[in-house]
Design a protein that fits this description.
Chain lengths: 290, 319
């Protein structure tokens, strides 16, 4: 019989993973909310960011958390360039074209990584890798707890950025009505690219938080991209808090699925939620009617 | 029948290739082109003709591939029955995905996402179930013979692929030239307008996905016969879904010849990249990704649209 303590431990693990999932999903959701595009390259961009952290730690001897102030602006800049000069130029706003262009970017990034770094799974060595912290009945690696805490801070900062800055106001204006935003003097193309840049910048932060308890390989993005899509769809495309609560929920579902169904089949709960949400409530739990 | 002559000519011209070339490499390449052209054609029936972009054609390919393997290995039946079972199973899978998606009027990006999710569910199930051999996969015993649909030499597989590719072209031409094709085009261009004119969008999209899935399942069965080995990643992995849509997008979705042209161009590009990089893994897919972005940017109608006047986009701007 299942002991309650195992269940609680599994819940805590799920919530800790879910906080990072929420951060990854928020980047995707923000891009959807503003640009109304689905970025298939989100997972591949996370993979690229993970490699960047890996090399900063492995070659430059940096602490993964010290890499955050380097990687966030760098990932943001890369995202800006990528959107302004590749995605926007190639797709000209057509929905299918955006899917295909971001798919093309994902193909290039993933296979470039495969060609350059081979398919090896890489992990970083940190002095505190085996430090454990007790959270209720659960014994969590300290790095996992730090990742969850860091993700929550990043989510709060993101919220403040969207709510309380001029850029945030411009982003929300463009999300609501791009023509009206243009009329009041907002440089819409610039804001589009900035929204995309914020999306990739969150991936930079997520990569620094993830790597100490995770690994990097050319395919590492696949798992995340589907989880992130599920969260975004579940929470409601473009909904900030939807993506946040969705992230926590999916973290728990994955953890419990793994507990009851095993590592491989446990993933199925996530996709069942994904398909059911798409079919029954495509606006998500928190989303407005489309 | 106007369009059948070019297809017949194509089949006739392609037929003697094994006698003309002694090179196994050329024959392998041609077989791969025909196989991927047929998979692309399957995608084209739904994505090109009906405008429903699937990112999960692996679900149909893999269902067909596993169905024929299971019928032969677990039930001990012959490969022809396996092939028929592959098509039937893939059609059922197509009907399931189509019913779920179209019933709830998913389209555009949402349809792309849900097809992707179905393919992932299929991959996880294949990875977990006993009947599919779980993560180990399934191995078909080597036993050349027409009843086993296995051939001792490469030419047999080439002709097998040619039959499939020709069948795909005939299906595509037939759909395009009948009312179904006109209705699909109407749904693709403007679903609301098509509905207003009396087109039952759900019914015509269901027909498109069933044909598409059946053909993709046949290609899956061919794959099993050719390589005699399957695992969940080979059958249901995202790379299959990507391969299915790359050819038609690059070649041109508006034409029945687009998928074949795209498959040929991509395979040749893959060979060239391999030669240039000395066979670095992934280099060919890097090239595919770049070509995909460039095609969408500069030739939204695909390579086959090169000779035609450029269509206007939403803003009324050419190219």
């Amino acid at each position: 019989m299942l002991e309650p303590s195992i269940l609680t431990a599994s819940l805590v693990h799920g919530l800790a993973n879910g906080a990072v999932y929420a951060l990854v999903a928020l980047g995707l959701s923000l891009v959807y909310g503003v640009l109304h595009i689905i970025n298939f390259a989100h997972g591949a961009l996370l993979m690229a960011a993970l490699y960047a952290v890996y090399f900063l730690v492995d070659r430059a001897g940096l602490d993964p958390y010290a890499a955050i102030p380097i990687l966030v602006p760098a990932a943001g800049a890369a995202g800006y360039v990528l959107h302004r000069w590749v995605v926007a130029k190639a797709s000209r706003g057509r929905e299918e074209a955006v899917l295909l262009v971001t798919l093309g970017i994902a193909l290039v990034l993933e296979n470039l990584a495969l060609a350059l770094f081979r398919s090896d799974t890489r992990t970083i060595e940190t002095g505190w890798a085996f430090a454990m912290v007790a959270v209720g009945p659960a014994l969590l690696p300290a790095a996992k707890l730090a990742a969850a805490a860091g993700a929550l801070v990043a989510v709060a900062l993101l919220w403040a950025l969207v709510r309380a800055t001029d850029l945030g106001r411009a982003i929300r204006a463009v999300a609501k009505d791009r023509e009206a935003a243009r009329l009041v003097g907002i440089d819409v193309e610039h804001v589009f690219a900035l929204a995309f840049a914020i999306g990739t910048a969150t991936l930079g932060a997520a990569a620094c938080l993830l790597l100490p308890t995770y690994y990097v390989s050319p395919q590492v993005g696949h798992g995340f991209v589907l989880i992130a899509f599920t969260i975004v769809v579940l929470g409601g495309m473009g909904s900030f808090w939807g993506a946040f609560w969705g992230g926590l929920l999916i973290g728990v579902v994955e953890s419990l699925g793994g507990l009851f169904l095993g590592e491989s089949l446990g993933q199925i709960g996530i996709f069942a939620i994904f398909i059911a949400t798409l079919l029954l409530r495509p606006t998500g739990l928190f989303g407005r009617a489309v | 029948m106007r369009p059948l002559a070019p297809i017949g000519l194509f089949a006739l011209l392609a037929l003697p290739l094994p006698w003309l070339t002694g090179s196994g490499t050329v024959l392998n390449l041609a077989t791969m082109v025909l196989m991927l052209a047929t998979l692309g054609q399957a995608w084209n029936l739904l994505g090109g003709m009906a405008g429903q972009f699937s990112f999960g054609h692996a679900a149909f390919f893999g269902t067909g591939a596993y169905a024929t393997a299971i019928v032969q290995i677990r039930l001990g039946l012959d490969a022809w029955t396996g092939f028929a079972a592959a098509v039937v199973a893939a059609v059922a899978m197509g009907a399931l995905v189509g019913f779920a998606s179209f019933r709830f009027r998913l389209r555009g990006s949402y349809f792309a996402l849900v097809t992707l999710a179905f393919a992932e569910v299929a991959r996880i199930l294949a990875n977990s179930l006993e009947v599919t051999g779980a993560g180990v996969g399934l191995l078909l015993p080597l036993a050349p013979g027409l009843d086993r649909l296995q051939f001792a030499d490469k030419a047999g597989y080439y002709w097998f692929a040619l039959v499939l590719c020709t069948a795909g072209l005939l299906i595509a031409a037939r759909i395009r030239d009948t009312r179904l094709g006109a209705r699909l085009a109407a749904v693709r261009e403007n679903e609301e307008a098509a509905r207003a004119l009396g087109v039952v969008a759900f019914a015509v999209k269901m027909q498109a996905i069933v044909w598409s899935a059946g053909l993709a399942g046949a290609v899956g069965a061919f794959y099993t016969q050719l390589f005699l080995y399957l695992d969940p990643h080979i059958a249901f992995g995202p790379q299959v879904s990507v391969e299915a849509l790359l050819g038609p997008i690059v070649g041109g979705t508006g034409s029945i010849w687009g998928p074949l042209l795209g498959a040929a161009v991509l395979q040749l590009l893959g060979e060239v990249t391999r030669a240039l990089t000395g066979g670095v893994t992934g280099a060919n897919l890097v090239a595919y990704g770049i070509v995909l972005v460039l095609i969408v940017r500069f030739f939204p109608d695909g390579m086959i649209g090169l000779g035609r006047p450029r269509a206007l986009d939403a803003r009324g701007v050419s190219g």
